[in-house]
Design a protein that fits this description.
Blueprint (H helix, E strand, L loop, with lengths): L1 E5 L2 E5 L5 H7 L23 E4 L6 E2 L10 E3 L3 H17 L6 H9 L24 E3 L9 H6 L9 E4 L6 E4 L15 H5 L5 E3 H9 L8 E6 L8 E7 L2 E6 L13 H5 L9
Parallel strand pairs: 1-5
Antiparallel strand pairs: 1-2, 3-4, 3-5, 6-9, 7-8, 10-11, 11-12
Length: about 270
């Protein structure tokens, strides 16, 4: 076991563990945005940075391996200021109206993106080119999760990638073609990992537009997909006795949160009249 200090508390973690694992072991909430326990860390968001004794710069806790004797501080003035600035930059350039977790952290770190004015650099027109899901990249924070699951982390479809650089960086299909003309197989795994609602079920998008989307009235029920014998676990999100979206648990041994087009979008056949 590796022994190190997190905010003055001694913790032990397994060899190969990261500083984020150590923070979790110490009971410290560290706010990652681009990190998922089922995916390879990429360190894109810089929101989980911590202060490491002897290190000149703050380090992303999701990437830095834990070493014996390390002294880590997660709530120093330097760390809080860095996280606050990241949240303010995101909030000033991206629509976070459907990202409650980000707004919660903005409140915790007293972030005020409005002080930068209305500079929505990520503003893009809504993309509705298929019947299953919509893409609203004005809400995209470039966490790269969707690109990773579409590629080597899950689907190996490579239908989307990051296009452009700097302020022009965006998630795009090849040559920016519409989804029906791309390599997309509509598994919807990109929706499952999106933290801001930039990718959303068409049903959710329409209900939000109509003002009828209400997560407090929704129930979640786990069941087994009926389409094949793999045994994928589906979490049915139901409102007013209708399935409004489908997810899968990240900790499920079969899916790790991933589904195919039938599992993700096919469950609504239960509402068919015949």
């Amino acid at each position: 076991m590796i022994e190190l200090s997190v905010d003055g508390r001694t913790v032990q973690v397994e060899p190969g563990a990261t500083l984020l694992d150590a923070c979790t072991a110490a009971g410290v909430e560290t706010p990652p945005l681009c990190f998922l326990k089922t995916r390879t860390p990429v360190g894109a968001c810089q929101r989980c940075v911590v202060e490491l004794e002897g290190s000149r710069a703050l380090v992303p806790s999701c990437l830095r391996a834990a070493e014996p004797g390390m002294e880590v501080r997660t709530d120093s003035a330097r760390v809080r200021h860095s996280r606050k600035m990241v949240l303010e930059f995101l909030g000033s350039s991206v629509d976070l109206s459907t990202a409650p977790e980000l707004r919660r952290y903005a409140a915790i770190y007293d972030a005020h993106p409005e002080r930068y004015g209305e500079c929505r650099t990520a503003s893009q027109p809504l993309k509705v080119d298929n019947a299953l899901y919509v893409r609203d990249y004005s809400k995209c924070v470039l966490c790269y999760k969707c690109v990773e699951v579409c590629g080597t982390e899950a689907q190996y479809t490579f239908a989307i990638a990051v296009s452009g650089r700097g302020f022009d960086a965006e998630i795009s299909t090849e040559f920016d073609v519409a989804l029906p003309d791309s390599a997309c197989v509509y598994c919807g795994n990109c929706i499952g990992v999106c933290p801001t609602g930039a990718l959303a079920f068409s049903s959710e998008h329409q209900m939000r537009a109509n003002g009828t989307w209400d997560e407090e009235r929704q129930t979640e029920t786990d069941t087994i997909c009926s389409y094949c014998g793999v045994g994928c676990v589906l979490t049915l999100h139901v409102q007013d006795n209708c399935i409004v979206k489908v997810t899968s648990p990240l900790d499920d041994d079969v899916t790790s949160g991933n589904l195919c087009v039938k599992g993700r979008f096919g469950a609504t056949y239960v509402h068919a009249e015949q």
